[in-house]
């Protein structure tokens, strides 16, 4: 008999899940376990590094191998009398938030693999040895590490397709639509987690360039724009090089340091964005100038 479109997609979900669990097994039970064993006994590289590379892969592996895959398999075996997977995917969705941790850590993890392969011959040899095995299919550790990153978008695509192919009267319709909505939210959640992490990293970078002035370091700030600017001094008709950082709540007016030890800039003035006004000036001598006036003081600045 001809299999229905939706059953084909459900079977594809099961097959890819089986392959995915094999890949997670390789990451957790082979790479992680063997590197950890060497770190403990050989003391040739730190256990901490191994933990940082694999993040929470063990939880992800256990969840998929002990819960999601068996549930999916059971569903597909009873498909003819109970054609549905929506309810199982609804149970899966909340657990996918575990991926946030893994995704946030991913870039750092790949960097660590590269760095320690250069630093520690035993580390590199052990990875090379595992990569030669048949189970690795000629692919690198980094390649396998990418799998969990790509899995959630894959669920989303398969499920979208599944919902599209379901006949309107299918008993799985309501559940499948709800499941898709949940997966969509998780995908958004993990993207948001990555974006938030990048924002904080950039912010920290800015704070370091400013010399970590206590009253400026605040994780809720958002950097909007930064760049060099000329300060116009009408007293002696000259301009001097300054640098601005505009945050959502304040403008930092800085002087570039000549000797850059620690910080690149010294903060000369903080102006609250609240109550700040900007006015363009028509000055023939200094084109592209504008006035920024705030509670603290007024500055005449010239852009490029």
From TrEMBL:
Transmembrane segments: none annotated. It comes from the Eukaryota. It is found in: Cytoplasm, Cytoskeleton. GO terms for molecular function: guanyl-nucleotide exchange factor activity; zinc ion binding. Keywords: Cytoplasm, Cytoskeleton, Metal-binding, Phosphoprotein, Repeat, Zinc, Zinc-finger. InterPro entries: DBL_dom_sf, DH_dom, FYVE_RhoGEF_PH, PH-like_dom_sf, PH_domain, SOS1_NGEF_PH. This is FGD2 protein. Signal peptide: none annotated. Residues 5-193 form the DH domain. SUPFAM superfamilies: DBL homology domain (DH-domain), PH domain-like. One of its GO terms (biological process) is cytoskeleton organization. One of its GO terms (cellular component) is cytoplasm. Residues 222-304 form the PH domain. The keyword Transferase does not apply. Pfam families: RhoGEF, SOS1_NGEF_PH. It comes from Neopipo cinnamomea.
